[in-house]
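Hey L., structure's done. Input below.
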Amino acid sequence: MNTVRALWGSAHPGPSVVVTALAVALGVAAGLEPWRATLLGAAVLAGQLSVGISNDALDVVRDRAVGRTDKPLARGDITVRTAWIAAYVTLAAALVLSAPLGVGMLGAHAVFIGSAWAYNAGLKSTPVSIVPFLVGFGLFPSLATLSAADPSLAAPWAWAAGAALGAAVHLTNVLPDLDDDRLTGVRGLPHRLGPRVSAVLAASGIIAGALAVLLGPVAGDVSAVSAVSWVFFAGVVAIALATLLRVVLRPPDRTAFRLVMLAALLLAAQMVASGEALAG
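Output:
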């Protein structure tokens, strides 16, 4: 049980659960049968566990160097070998669970996971650190639509919303670790931009995603937007502004990232309300 608990702590459980919930919500929006939505959620969760655990396994030396006592691997609760075994097992499980949902879903999920692994493996330390998030989250809504009995890629507005949200996730997730990352040689795009510019771009990304979800399903016809969609949009914009103020007025912490995750859940709920418009 201690090993399982340590692996769960290494898997970045909060974001993993949120991304899984987003996938299931999008599956509902795409009209998936219950078994397909359930399998989609299981596959995405397995993939996210592999991403989180591999991230901590790759970063263990850096995490120990800066005294990250919140990381089970850095504390020595489990061995690096155990973490890598778990990362590969969950990766394999993610692909096996994706296969019954179709070749398109399997391929898209492989790209989604591969983008995240590429970030972990070195892209996080480059000026293009945001690219895996643009690619992965841009593709993310298609995991749901490609899991349908009649598979298709998601609508262009869903791609835009996913990519914008992915950018915001990246730009806020690393803010609390900027100093530690600098000491250990990690210098991605947010490190080069600084916390305030990153926060402005993240807030802009959230609002851009909200606009895409608001106007995309109705082909830009503002008069056709439902009252419920306007409520969701207002909520997401409020969260974007709160995220910006949080970073500008206080030292960077995990709150900004949690606000972005909340915005992601609201956007998913808005996509559910858009119904079949999610499919391209």
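The chain has one domain: 2-278. The mean pLDDT is 89.

-- N.
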